[in-house]
Amino acid sequence: MSFISWNCQGLGNPCAVPTLKDLIRTYHPDVIFLCETKVHARRLEDIRVALNFDSSFAVDSSGRSGGLALLWKQPYSCHLINYFPHFINVSVTHPKKPTWRLTGFYGYPERNRRKDSWDLLRYLAQDNSLPWCVIGDFNDILSNQDKRGLIEHPTWLLRGFREAVMDSELVDIPLEGYNFTWTKSRGSPTQVEERLDRAMATQSWLNQFPDSRLINAVAARFENAWLDEPGLSPLVEASWHRGHFPDILDRLKSCSKDMDEWGRQLRLRFRAPIDACRRQLLELREKHDANFVSAFLEAQERLSTLLAREETFWKQRAKVYWLKNGDKNTKFFHAMASERKKKNLIQRLTKLDGTIVICIGNGLRIKPWIDPWMRQQGKPYVTSLPPAGYEETRIANLIDFENGTWKFDLINRIFNQRDVDAIKDIPLLQLDEADTLTWNLNRKGSYSVKSAYYLIMESLLCNSISRLPGDWKKLWALPIPHNMKIFLWSLLRDCLPSRQCLQQKGVPCTSLCPHCEAAQESNWHIFFGCQEAQIVW
Predict the structure, then answer these.
(1) For the chain, which terminus, N or C, has the lower number of CB atoms within 10 Å?
(2) Buried-state track 209-239, b at ≥16 Cβ within 10 A, e below 16
(3) Options 3.10.20.30, 3.40.109.10, 3.40.50.300, 3.60.10.10; which CATH number does 3-215 get?
(4) pLDDT (tens digit per residue) in 179-208
């Protein structure tokens, strides 16, 4: 398994998401923890989709600071234990591995609030007995070896953080790679470098994962697809017919090899200069001469420009292809350039009672005992049982094609009276055409998303225990403020984000009421069942 922790310093930064894609492409993480996102949870959902992660949980930023996010992929599943503006605490499960606890931590950056960070660590250590790992930006260091600068770190801060770590029974995981994770005033006489980001774990967690390593990651780059490149089709055709391989597997192997090499060359248009910048940054990172610092800053700026330029290139390229295909309304242009593009296909339509029926043509395809072909509203199937010898009968066997009528003698013999009456009402007008499926909720028999939506909403309203009796217009006509009408409508439709409702929608959280912890937090419980609510009323 692989985890990434990153202080992104604002996901609104144009280079933040491309850099995050670089890291994902290089390290293939199962879980990502982000701090200082500086965005709301709504924006995090868009980013989760763009990164192709299965689930996420986010803590909103406070103005232009703070903000946390945790994203994960299957087969790992993160279940929320609790959260705070400075941590996200979850239990991590895997179908084949023991459960353990992960905390994404962001320490208070203000020195006068460091004690609050230490107390948070102690609180989290007592909160659960599972094997525990903490990752994130602690905004603290354990010793002066974690700092490079003219002024040593205050002793009281070092001692306070060390004591908090010891009280929490955490072990610092050694860092591989560059020793420092944060830099301030680069190129000036007061330049400071510190190791603020770290991972720590309890001994039980280290015993469970003895081969765990902590690496100071260097962002690579994200690689977009070349699926719509004009040179791809000729390449595949030439590769497929070259060599005259008799076996299709050999042809596929040859074609795959040529495509890999072609794609590598295609990516070099950006990869070569980006890799050169990255190598230069690694060489200059530990040099502090003024000339070297200037070169470092120039390379850093050049790398950011190249990443942004590459992102723009693929977005514009995808936009061209998407517009060429005729869709001028969608904003998801970049998905067209992704090599992991997924196609959404309607594989089958589920037959709902009375909504899909078969329009009888020549009757060769319709099985009268299995298929929905009756015209009675809500009763499309026959109720008769097939007599012996008629199990494989088709509708065509029940039709007199010479006269264009039903074989009434046969129908009266093998069907009950209810089915006989229903069959006699079915006209035979298209005996020279094939049988077709028709959508019974449309006069023309054609399916539409609109009619299906109305069907689903009607079903939900009919089955909802919270349905408001009578017409909804009575609610909207009440002489109360409009926001109260919206609130009442949400309550009656069970749309309020209670914990029970959130859990039903797949949000990882406990369903217990946080006030009484005696029952599930449903909408009814919030206002009437909870003891705290009863005190209010």
Answers:
(1) C
(2) eeeeebeebebbbbbbbbebeeebeebeeeb
(3) 3.60.10.10
(4) 888 888 765 667 788 999 999 999 999 999
